[in-house]
Amino acid sequence: MSKRSDITTYAPGSNPTYGLIYTARCGWIDLGHANPTGPGKLWSEIKQGQLACHGTGYSRAKYTQQMRKFNLNASVSREYCVRDSLTLEQQKSVALSIFMGVSLSFEALQSNWFFGLLTDSGFSSEDLVSDLVGFYRAVSPGPDYIKMCEPMSKDYSLRVWDTFGSSGSIKNFSFGPFLYDLGPRVGAGGGRCGPLPDFLSRIKPAPAGQLFIEASALGRTKWPAR
């Protein structure tokens, strides 16, 4: 759950793991969610393919998202069988599909009635788009994706917060950004869900069932032909 005091300034080229910024192209970004460490572990497992899954020709990949709030731990963890000998682009597509599925399930967990009594962080407007920034930083490193989202000044970010409310008060169930306008008609109509910038939409998620499948489904789902 982001707080007004979390709002900070982003220094291009830095690698912050905490703070909240507002950007012109990606809306609110939680710098903790945008950390590539978590998706980087998933990406390493898919690339290396070291643990066999369902005999030969497939490797196991596990991805977990977790939180700790008020001395409570909660997590979503899933295992998948991923086809070996995929191209780099296919591997990225599989990784994105797994990443998106677990991210959505984790936000849904935080939105259930119990956690809803403690926090408004489930599907907070910055969560999923920030997750996506972290994913791209992990699988296609090099560009400064946060800079490319065009961070605004701390003063501007504070004005967005004070004008439109906290980032958690707006729920965003997609990976697209939620954008606000402080122009001449400030406040008119509130925010709007905008399109993802092209640099965050180059990888397309692979459909489950051909290149990968959830490991728990093996006993009840016909394995795709190789």
Description:
- The chain is an alpha+beta fold.
- It has one domain.
- 30% of the residues lie in helices and 17% in strands.
- It has 6 helices and 7 strands.
- It has helices at 37-48, 88-110, 113-116, 127-139, 145-148, 154-164; strands at residues 20-23, 27-30, 58-69, 72-83, 178-179, 192-193, 212-214.
- The protein has a 3-stranded antiparallel sheet with strand order 3-4-7. Strands 1-2 form a two-stranded antiparallel sheet.
- A hairpin with a 3-residue loop joins strand 1 and strand 2 (27-30).
- Helix 1 packs across helix 4.
- It is elongated, with a radius of gyration of 19 Å.
- The model has no long low-confidence stretch (mean pLDDT 84).
Strand order of the largest sheet: 3-4-7
Spatial extent as radius of gyration: 19 Å
CA-based shape: elongated
Share of residues in helices: 25-40%
Structural class: alpha+beta
- N→C terminal distance: 44 Å
Tell me which oligomeric state these chains represent.
single chain
Overall pLDDT? 84
Approximately how much beta-strand content do the residues carry?
15-25%
The number of distinct helices, counting runs of at least 4 residues, comes to 6
Biggest sheet: strands, sense, closure?
Answer: 3 strands, antiparallel
Poorly predicted runs of 5 or more residues: none
Spell out the helices and strands N to C.
EEHEEHHHHHEEE
Number of domains: 1
Number of distinct beta strands: 7
